[in-house]
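Protocol step 6 of 9: fold each sequence in the batch and record its structure tokens directly after the sequence line. For illustration, a two-sequence batch is reproduced in full.

Sequence one:
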Amino acid sequence: MLKSLLLITALVYFGFGLLLFVGQRGFIYFPVNALPSNLEQRVFENDGEAIKTSVINQGNKQAIIYFGGNAENVDYNAFEFQQLLNGYTVYLVKYRGYAGSTGEPTEQGIYADALHIYDEIEADYQSVSVIGRSLGSGVATYLASQRKVKKLALITPFDSVKNVAQAVFPMYPMGILLKDKHDSLSRAKDITSDTLILAAENDEVIKMTHTLSLINGFEQDVHFKEIKGANHNDISESLVYVDTLSAFFKK
């Protein structure tokens, strides 16, 4: 009976581990459908894929590239950003496989697209800044570590997807299982941009320990604000969040 129990336990362990490995990107990325929209669109061709962006506040001399969360339709930010970031032309990036962009999302592909978009627009503006929310914070930190980014705002960021997953599944070696690790912590030391980090006090997805770990990886001082009473998904509804983000990009 003991041998049978051990065998069943081993089968369950390895079976679920196999499920995690095979379906891991389904746990990280949740592509969304396109919304009916009158927003101006710009499509960037990269590696045979068409990456769509919605462009708001055209005509400004400074730009912001926005990378959203893993299940976010970035067009929902358009109205707020039109008011909040009216001094910047903002590119709302739709990852591969999201909202009409072609391909399938992977860490390598999304990072390549981020670099391509920056390189395509950089010459048109006096400066380029970046905002990354949740999963998008990993994309934003990568871009800021590779290119000259004036301002960097990270909303509910993590140190790495590997560390977040390891905390959820402590019985598995996530460093071995994961293909897409989004290791922002290893890149923080290479970032020189003026940086703001906004965290939700009651974040149920990205625990504060992961955000603080990321902050400790920077070799420069960063601006940090914890939004009291906020959760992972409703942080942007806080007036403190709105005021802090607005002030950061206006100063």
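Sequence two, same batch, same settings:
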Amino acid sequence: MEISASIERHMHRLCEEIGERLIGTDGNREAANYIYSVFESSHLQIKQLYFSCPNWHCDNTSLFAGDLPITAKANTFSPACHIRAGYDVVYTMEQLRSASLVDRVLVMCGELTQQPIPPYNENAVYLPESAREIGLLLRSKKPKAVVFINQTPNYELLMLEDQRLDIPSVTLSADEGIKLLAHPGATLTLDINSYSEQGETCHIVGRNLQPSDQRRLLLCAHYDSRYGTVGAFDNASGVAVLLTLAELFAEQNPTVSLEFVAFSSEEYQVADSYDDPYLSQYGLSIPPFDYTKEIAAPYKPSDLDNVIAVLNFDGVGHTLGANAITTMSCSTALKDTVVKVKESFPAVTIVGGWPASNHYAFYSNGIPSLPFNSVGMNNIIHNPIDDMRYMSTSKMVEVVTLAQQIVHALADKTPAWSRIFDLP
């Protein structure tokens, strides 16, 4: 098969025909059906793991300061509203703590919106203390609405996407924020025409099992996208690599079992616990993030003890960047093998580990993980500009070829060889 043609076919389908793949939506379901069809044509044994999630839509949003229109975007999962009220601006956490916001609209900027705020959830895998405090303060002070001002000009990123917050909220660009703040004392009129209902999404698992061999390599990528973006880089690129590898190994019949997992809901944690439908079938869960530990959970035997390593593809192949790989919860022997294979790919860089993405669920449980991503180009992910114009087919071919060679290098290895602790 021609690898480049396969990648281009998958990217075209995901980005240009399906487009946005927000959990719970038609686009997410279309992407799942497409992945299923590719797994099926690659002769994999397929299982779908369904779970509930919000199905949120927003038809339009308008904001006026007096008679002046201000361009605003409803934050994902914001409830609908029609509000007229005065507003108060806070720039610091100290101001937010002391503000009285009853019947007022809260406008947040300054140190509070230098970067997106993780949503408040006591069961979150990762929640910085500042985000925890902001989430609690919003819930206790109950402003009529919240307006977040993005601090980075020409960067259209929503500042808060919190499915558990029942307060209407929007994000303004830096330029629109300046327009608003030039009218202190104005009455704000905010209309958000949105609705949310219970939806459904799923992980899709495809297996190519070798007879009498329980060992396997797990290859994965998440197919959901953020609201308002087709997510070409994050993460249609990883899915295109995953699907191309499924097609490639269908032809090659490798000597080790392979398991391909297309995860959903990577972008938004929808569960109220650390449970994940994939891990929970093995009696495992996702532990809270801990900076001080690579393996965050105590060892618990499961069928995942048969996994030699997990290859996770999340954000690869943009034209101006360098593809990257790292090793997490891996034995020295596995690390050395990855370095050796990588020698034939001088344009790929080896970087330090990072927790964000689906590989966290594995390496934090002691399962060797090889995350793939890219370094170089900034301000792409979760942004409306994350489309095909920045993507490179040849760089995605590079990732497919590197992953293919790593699979072959690990095909005769054992889980005991790849781990940093002894299996019972």
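Proceed to step 7 once all outputs are recorded. Observation for sequence two: The chain has eleven helices and 15 strands.
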